[in-house]
Design brief:
The chain is of the alpha+beta class. It has one domain. The protein contains 4 helices and 5 strands. Strands 1, 2, 3, 4 and 5 form a 5-stranded antiparallel sheet that branches. The model has no long low-confidence stretch (mean pLDDT 95).
């Protein structure tokens, strides 16, 4: 029997006008302490984005998501925080903030394979 892994995940949200508190789910960030890893996937549904925020700059949002991803995956281009351990990166990225890119509160789950878990979460919550 395969070992079940405890993971935490948060939904990444684009909030074009913070004062309105409207958002579009654009990604998932997943942390597994046992694997010492952070995974992140993102996708922008441009039709939904256009209906929510016609003035949104897609290339700017993509740049934000690339930077978020670099930090999540520990890439040097993610800056000093990207050099921290997986738990610290996940906690920093999921901290409450008032910006265009926010996350939900972290939620726990169990899985046998974190790669399948993040793909399932993407299907259910973003795509």
């Amino acid at each position: 029997m395969q070992e079940k892994l405890l993971y935490e995940y948060a939904v990444i949200r684009y909030v074009p006008r913070v004062e309105r508190e409207e958002f579009l789910n654009v990604g998932i960030i997943l942390f597994c302490k046992q694997q010492r890893s952070v995974k992140m996937r993102w996708h922008i549904n441009k039709a939904k984005l256009q209906s929510l925020a016609p003035e949104a700059d897609v290339s700017e949002l993509e740049a934000y998501l690339h930077a978020f991803s670099a930090t999540a995956h520990g890439d040097k281009s993610g800056g000093p925080m990207a050099q921290e351990d997986a738990a610290s990166r996940f906690r920093w990225l999921t901290a409450v903030r008032s910006s265009a890119l926010q996350t939900s509160r972290p939620h726990p789950g169990f899985c046998a394979d974190t790669e399948n878990a993040i793909e399932r979460l993407m299907e259910e919550l973003v795509l």
